[in-house]
Amino acid sequence: MTRNLTDEERALWERLSETVEPLDKKKAAKARPGAASAAAPRKPKGMSETRAKRPVSPTKTPAPPPVKRPPALAPLQERTRRRLARGLVEIDARIDLHGMRQERAFARLQTFLHHAQARGHRVVLVVTGKGNGEGRGVLKQSVPAWLARPDLRHLVVGFEPAGRRHGGDGALYVRVRRRREARRVSASAP
Predict the structure, then answer these.
(1) For residue 103, what pLDDT is reported?
(2) Residue 119 in contact with residue 133, Cβ under 8 Å?
(3) Which of 15, 60, 161, 165 has its CA 20 to 30 A from that of 41?
(4) Predicted local confidence at residue 53, as pLDDT
(5) Nearest Cα residue to 171 out of 113, 98, 120, 115
(6) Cα 104 to Cα 45: distance, rounded to the nearest angstrom
(7) What is the pLDDT at residue 59?
(8) C-alpha angle 131/133/137, rounded to 5°?
(9) Of all helices (H) and strands (E), which one includes residue 175?
(10) How far apart (Å, rounded) are the C-alpha atoms in residues 129 and 159?
(11) How far apart are CA 31 and CA 41, in angstroms?
């Protein structure tokens, strides 16, 4: 159901259409019979000549800044993993999370990894526990997911299940990322 425009609405529409320049002038001339010339739009009152002729461009939204992706996780080198499993290389630090609730375990893991990085540790052991008899422990499943999170990538290079001597399926070897020190440049250096 359509209704007819009132005289006031028609006059308002005419004033508005005079200020708009059609994209396709040929189609606009056909669509508006009786229009004097679609090629030469009239300028509205009070508008300067240069402003009336200036093409209107849509506003451009700035491109979002590039997202800096965290570095990918890397597995332990085979030689390092074998030497750790045999006890030929010492583990720098250990944390035992089994028996803790998830919230507390996650907070302790984050703190532990920050301290390990600050102390310059390279490989640490995270004990999650083996879970119930079927090997479905909550921390055993959660800790690898936590270590793979983007917000912990600045601390973790990679991780793998520990050897039997260090807890086997109930523990993980975690490689700690080196801390990047701000390079100091002295004023006297050439």
Answers:
(1) 92
(2) no
(3) 60
(4) 56
(5) 98
(6) 70
(7) 65
(8) 20
(9) strand 171-176
(10) 16
(11) 15
Q: Residue ranges of the alpha helices (H) in the chain?
A: 7-18, 25-31, 49-53, 78-86, 102-118, 138-147
Burial of residue 156 (number of CB atoms within 10 Å: 0-12, 13-18, 19+): buried
Residue range 132-163, pLDDT digits in tens? 766 578 888 889 889 888 888 888 888 888 88
pLDDT at residue number 38: 45
Strands 171-176 and 123-127, sheet pairing = antiparallel
Is 95 strand, coil or helix?
A: strand
Contact residues for 124 (Cβ-Cβ < 8 A; gap 6+): 91, 92, 93, 94, 95, 112, 113, 116, 173, 174, 176
* Structural domain boundaries in the chain: 8-53, 78-176
Q: DSSP code of 97?
A: -
DSSP-derived letter for residue 157 is: E
Nearest to 124 by CA among 98, 82, 95: 95
